[in-house]
């Protein structure tokens, strides 16, 4: 997969298939979470791509909503790393990870097509959803894209929205499911379980002193779509999935400030600092809370552990 990080019009770096310079089939979007609706766009790109045309994705960081209204930024479903890894696993040839900033946001609809689609990506087909908007102030729509496509030499394919139980699949719907602890519902919309991953970092080690040592992950995709105390399965590297209880948040009971995902494995005692950890969420047990004393906190942690154990046994039986 070729990864482009350059500004529009710059020379791309990375590895590309030999045919990439002959043009591409392009889809454009945030692709946060890469849910089943996004997969429909990618599937149509794959149908149109051939030995002469590369399958290309143009995506943005930060998300436009976060750039324009950072105080109201939507919760993130995936890190940049997760998004790129998923696109790689799907066989995408080119990913243009575009820095969304004031300069890029100022491009008119025509400039966006001329510089990005017809220029850098040499689009021969552009695949978008029915509600696609582009250019400064979202001035461009599907009808304008077709007009510009005729001028710049590409065809436009419109992919209908994907529905589940009568409702359109969207990132915002998945975010709400995660916030509600409806992890099975979110997995159905994503097409896979929702997971977080990262490398284990050292914390204050208070958990170990209280009898509950934790493996800590920094929250790379912020704000998080979920939080609280959760029953999870987690694995180290590509190892076996292990049952655990986790806390995701700022840990008010111990004066925490930085948001962390703290994972306590059951019946496990190994040094895993620096190793890659992947976490899959099964059930939300409760919200974060403050406690009058460490004794009260430990008592609640014991109850959380038992609730998580019971929940994960049931989940294992259903699997």
Question: What does the secondary structure layout of this molecule look like, with pairings?
Answer:
Elements: E1 2-4, E2 24-28, H1 36-48, E3 54-61, H2 64-68, H3 80-89, E4 94-99, H4 102-105, H5 109-120, E5 123-129, H6 142-152, E6 155-159, E7 163-164, E8 167-168, H7 171-179, H8 183-190, E9 195-199, H9 206-209, E10 215-218, E11 228-236, E12 242-249, E13 260-265, E14 276-286, H10 294-318
Parallel strand pairs: 1-4, 2-3, 2-5, 3-4, 5-6
Antiparallel strand pairs: 7-8, 9-14, 10-13, 11-12, 11-14, 12-13
Q: What does this molecule look like?
A:
The chain has helices at 36-48, 64-68, 80-89, 102-105, 109-120, 142-152, 171-179, 183-190, 206-209, 294-318, and strands at residues 2-4, 24-28, 54-61, 94-99, 123-129, 155-159, 163-164, 167-168, 195-199, 215-218, 228-236, 242-249, 260-265, 276-286. It has 319 residues and is of the alpha/beta class. It has 2 domains: 2-164, 3-Layer(aba) Sandwich (Rossmann fold), CATH 3.40.50.620; 195-318, Elongation Factor Tu (Ef-tu), domain 3. The strands form 3 sheets. The chain has a 6-stranded parallel β-sheet, with helices on both faces. Strands 9-14-11-12-13-10 form a 6-stranded antiparallel β-sheet, covered by helices on one side. Strands 7-8 form a two-stranded antiparallel ribbon. It starts with a strand and ends with a helix. The model is unreliable at 8-20 (pLDDT under 50).
């Amino acid at each position: 997969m070729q990864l482009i990080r350059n500004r529009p019009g710059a020379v791309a770096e990375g590895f590309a298939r030999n045919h990439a310079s002959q043009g591409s089939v392009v889809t454009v979007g945030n692709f946060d979470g890469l849910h089943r609706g996004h997969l429909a766009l990618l599937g149509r790109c794959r149908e149109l791509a051939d030995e002469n045309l590369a399958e290309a994705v143009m995506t943005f960081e930060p998300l436009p909503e976060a750039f324009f209204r950072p105080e109201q930024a939507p919760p993130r479903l995936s890190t940049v790393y997760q998004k790129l890894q998923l696109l790689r696993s799907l066989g995408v040839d080119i990913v243009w990870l575009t820095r969304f900033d004031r300069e890029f946001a100022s491009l008119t609809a025509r400039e966006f097509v001329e510089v990005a689609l017809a220029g850098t990506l040499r689009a021969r087909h552009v695949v978008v959803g029915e509600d696609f908007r582009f250019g400064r102030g979202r001035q461009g729509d599907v009808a304008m894209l077709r007009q510009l496509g005729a001028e710049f030499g590409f065809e436009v394919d419109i992919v209908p929205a994907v529905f589940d139980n009568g409702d359109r699949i969207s990132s915002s719907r998945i975010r709400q499911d995660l916030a509600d602890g409806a992890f099975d519902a979110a997995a159905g919309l994503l097409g896979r379980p929702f997971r977080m991953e990262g490398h284990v970092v050292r914390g204050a080690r208070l958990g170990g002193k209280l009898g509950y040592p934790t493996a800590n992950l920094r929250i790379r995709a912020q704000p998080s779509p979920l939080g609280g105390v959760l029953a999870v399965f987690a694995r180290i590297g590509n190892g076996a999935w292990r049952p655990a209880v986790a806390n995701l948040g700022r840990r008010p009971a111990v004066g925490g400030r930085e948001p962390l995902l703290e994972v306590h494995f059951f019946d496990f005692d190994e040094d895993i600092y620096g190793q890659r950890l992947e976490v899959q969420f099964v059930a939300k047990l409760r919200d974060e809370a403050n406690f009058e004393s460490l004794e009260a906190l430990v008592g609640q942690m014991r109850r959380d552990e038992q609730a998580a154990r019971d929940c994960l046994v049931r989940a294992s039986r259903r699997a």
